[in-house]
From TrEMBL:
Protein name per Swiss-Prot or TrEMBL: SDR family NAD(P)-dependent oxidoreductase
Domain called Ketoreductase: residue spans: 4-180
Coiled coil: none
Source organism superkingdom: Bacteria
Native organism: Amycolatopsis samaneae
Positions of transmembrane segments: none
Similarity remark: Belongs to the short-chain dehydrogenases/reductases (SDR) family.
Cited Pfam families: adh_short_C2 (PF13561)
């Protein structure tokens, strides 16, 4: 297979970093796209991949980053829409509106803007590409205090299906991976709290919180030719948590 150009948003940390490393290990040309330019540069250097600084929630930043990447490497073959955050938590009746707005802006608007820009680019370039969105099982199963975050992931799943339908005539596939809790910098706080960690693990039939290496193979698969007949799907990687 020819080397593909793979853009991973939020690739400087956690699931995105491990995804970038996995695609690089398969010999693909990887671009880490992150709002933290310094972290993106350092991680890219460590992994021997490319990087670009962008804010996925800002259309001008997104368009500039897509233009910079394509000028440097040619067409983008794979987009992993991974960048996301919760930004805080709390009951819907008390949640700070600024936390809600930031979460919607990055997770929903950001995924929309990246899909819009890279989808249009793939269509124009005639690239039969793949887009993989990182959702969450929270899109389908509520946890008190995370309603704002989970609603953005439900929106990402709806966007996944719409984009899959609209881009299918161009041979572009759009899927999602929906992890349960994963040990990353995003969850480091709660994972360090033994009681909170045990309470979460009690919800997982397979008994443990995921590591990034439990999640990444599904992302790589959905972007691979082996998944050529799969589009509009959301694959839960949750140790069975959705069964409960
Ligand atoms: N960790 C979990 O338990 C878990 C579970 C389900 C889903 N997810 C999802 O997986 C994805 C990655 O999570 P993680 O745990 O690896 O998080 P993380 O905090 O370790 O990494 C997120 C990365 O995204 C970048 N980022 C944030 N805002 C950005 C923006 N506006 N533009 C560009 N980059 C931006 C950050 O700089 C960071 O490098 C997120 O979408 C998250 O919602 C995480």
């Amino acid at each position: 297979m020819n080397k593909r150009t793979v853009v991973v948003t939020g690739g400087a940390s956690g699931i995105g970093r491990a995804t970038a490393e996995a695609f690089a290990g398969e010999g693909e040309h990887v671009v880490i796209a992150d709002i933290s330019g310094e972290a993106a540069r350092d991680v890219a250097k460590e992994l021997g991949v490319d990087h670009v600084e962008l804010d996925i929630s800002d259309p001008e930043s997104v368009d500039a980053a897509v233009a910079a990447v394509t000028a440097r490497t040619g067409p983008i073959d794979v987009l992993v829409n991974n960048a996301g955050l919760a930004g805080g938590g709390g009951p819907i009746t008390a949640l700070d509106v600024a936390v809600f707005d930031r979460c919607v802006r990055v997770n929903f608007r950001g995924t929309f803007l990246m899909t819009r820009a890279v989808g249009a680019h793939m269509v124009a370039a005639g690239t039969r590409g793949a887009i993989v969105n990182i959702s969450s099982i929270g899109a389908r199963q509520p946890t008190p205090g995370l309603g704002h975050y989970e609603a953005t992931k439900a929106a990402v799943e709806a966007l996944t299906r719409s984009a899959a339908l609209e881009l299918a005539p161009h041979g572009i596939r759009v899927n999602a991976v929906a992890p349960g809790p994963v040990l990353t910098p995003m969850t480091a706080g709660f994972a360090a709290d033994t009681a909170a960690r045990e309470a979460w693990e009690a919800r997982i039939p397979l008994g443990s919180i995921a590591s990034v290496s439990d999640v990444v193979p599904s992302v790589v698969f959905l972007a691979s030719p082996g998944a050529r007949h799969i589009t509009g799907a959301s694959l839960q990687v949750d140790g069975g948590q959705l069964l409960g």
